[in-house]
Amino acid sequence: MRRLRYLHRIVGLVSVVFVLLLSITGILLNHTEELQLNKRYVRFQPLLSLYGVQAPSLVSFIVDNHRITQLGQQVYHNKTPLSIHLKTQEKLVAASVFTDFYVIASQQRIWLLTPDFEVIETIGEAQSLPTPLLVLSHTENHLYIDTESGIYRTDSDFLAWEKVFSHSGKWIKSYSPNRKLKAYLLQRYQGDGLPWERVLLDLHSGRILGYFGVLLMDLAAILLIFLTLTGVWMWWRVSYPTKYKKKLKPKA
Amino acid sequence: MRYIIFSLVVLMCSGQLAARGTYQTPQDFLAEVFAQQVPKPQKLWIVKDLKQQVKKILGHRLGSLRLRYWREDQKTVWILEEVGKEEVITVGVVVDDNKIEQLKVLIFRESRGWEVRHAFFTDQFKQATLQDNLKLDRSIDGISGATLSVRALRKLARLALLFHQHVVK
């Protein structure tokens, strides 16, 4: 009995951290909607880093007076996100105006856009686009792409790609965006990335520490079960000592 | 025993990886359909009513205003794409006289659901037509474990028939 009480006390002390953590996060999660935790975003950099939310590099192009910028998998026209979503490793290689279209090109695809930046057509593997694109250039009537397999050109219809031996025009280069735009986009990227609800859920389940955290929470649950059972047992022993003693008393 | 389990896991994984990829390039598909005489592609603008119909079929906007297609008499060929679960599936659809003549999965990028590329599944679309309510005139049997890919292919079949109706009026 004495040993059990000692063990109960030690386990109880160890469990304090878990009980507090589970209770506080549980209460907060119960009121997610009222507290708008799904709409409040983490801005604390170490926590963002823990989730792998790193600021990706920005690639930006100047088209007329517009800035076309890639940040992560999103492409922005100035500060407005476009309906162009890049794949994980996909990078923009150029943006320009060609005939009546805005042209945005990644290594794998070319998007033709209206003057209002609405996507007219996506040209990719399925449309016989030679890939991967390295750089892009254009004259008045032709658009040129330099790829690993050579230089190709097309006309304003974008229906066929003709291989050419050389192109003497200027290839489009990227620019680093101005500080204000960069700061805005980075804040938008990181700010919208990680809601507090997610962090609380992960704290509650232990997933914030990965699989180890889940095991830790399993252990916490086992400790709490242990505390409950030993607590009830000790209470029963104290409350009904005679019954217990009678049972244990050896028969004469 | 351990080696057998390990070998089985490796085999299963390699099978899944092998299932991903380009089964036939769009260019080869077109060359096959048109017997090497591929006509010049034409453009279909997705505007007004057609835009709404496309949204009704896909459940979302197409994401572009223009599509290209290849036509020879009453036969049209469409290279269409739709997301299965996470990745885009590229499908070639041949429509002749408002009926699907052939539907073929050209590029499959998902890790699951690749069974839709097999003829036992795609043959179900042959001779399918589009009803007024923008649904196929027949039910297409699903494949367990490939529900989303099946759904994507059904949508693309309906789209191809819808687009065909618009260009062959």
Walkthrough of the structure:
The complex is a heterodimer of chains A (252) and B (169). Helices cover 39% and strands 25% of the residues of chain A. Chain A is built from 7 helices and 12 strands. Chain A is rod-shaped. Chain A folds into 2 domains: 2-40 and 195-236, no CATH class; 59-191, 7 Propeller (Methylamine Dehydrogenase, Chain H). The longest helix of chain A has 29 residues, at 2-30. In chain A, the strands form 3 sheets. In chain A, strands 1-2-3-4 form a 4-stranded antiparallel β-sheet, with helices on one face. Chain A has a 4-stranded antiparallel β-sheet with strand order 5-6-7-8, with no helix packed on it. The model of chain A has no long low-confidence stretch (mean pLDDT 86). Chain B has 169 residues and is of the alpha+beta class. Chain B has one domain. Chain B contains 5 helices and 6 strands, in the order αβαβαββββαα. Chain B has helices at 2-19, 26-33, 48-58, 119-122, 147-167; strands at 21-22, 42-45, 66-72, 75-83, 88-96, 99-108. In chain B, β4 and β5 (88-96) form a beta hairpin. The termini of chain B are far apart. Mean pLDDT of chain B is 86; it is low at 11-17. Classes of the chains: A alpha+beta (252), B alpha+beta (169). Chain A binds chain B through residues 83, 112, 114, 118-122, 125-128, 157, 159-160, and chain B through 22, 26-27, 40-41, 43, 63-68, 79, 81, 90, 106-107.
